[in-house]
Specification:
single chain, alpha+beta, 5-stranded antiparallel β-sheet, 8 strands, rod-shaped
């Protein structure tokens, strides 16, 4: 026969085990603890918020005049509206221009100039999720 002291210790130990297990299961059901599986945050513990990598995009296009003829040698400007940085590119003989490695989290303006002619300013929004933008700039 076991003593009442031993029985009390066993009952207390079972109660702690049940309470611990119940608390764990409640945390899993409430979503406080992930249940496992592939991907980040699959281990037990608090979920970790990961930064999104928005990446970069390419902005390219053609510079044309009023008649639709391609304009080589025009200067195309790309202005970051947040930092105010301006990049430029001289259009090729067929009027092409290309800006690579343009961040997707900022807004930009793009326009072309040659001599006294200037195109309309076009805005590129950070909400535009396209990785490649084709823009035609018409000199006036």
């Amino acid at each position: 026969m076991r003593s009442s002291k031993t029985q009390a210790k066993e009952a207390s130990s079972r109660s702690r085990t049940i309470l611990t297990f119940s608390s764990f299961m409640l945390a899993v059901m409430m979503g406080v603890l992930p249940t496992g599986g592939p991907g980040p945050g699959a281990s037990l513990g608090p979920r970790i918020a990961l930064a999104q990598n928005f990446g970069q995009r390419v902005i390219q296009g053609k510079v044309v005049d009023d008649t639709g003829t391609f304009v080589g040698g025009a200067t195309v400007f790309l202005k970051n509206l947040k930092s105010r940085d301006i990049r430029s590119f001289n259009s090729t003989a067929d009027g092409s221009f290309r800006f690579a490695q343009v961040g997707m989290v900022d807004d930009y303006e793009v326009w072309a100039e040659k001599g006294k002619q200037k195109s309309a300013v076009k805005t590129i929004s950070s909400f535009d999720s396209r990785k490649e933008l084709d823009i035609d700039l018409k000199l006036k």
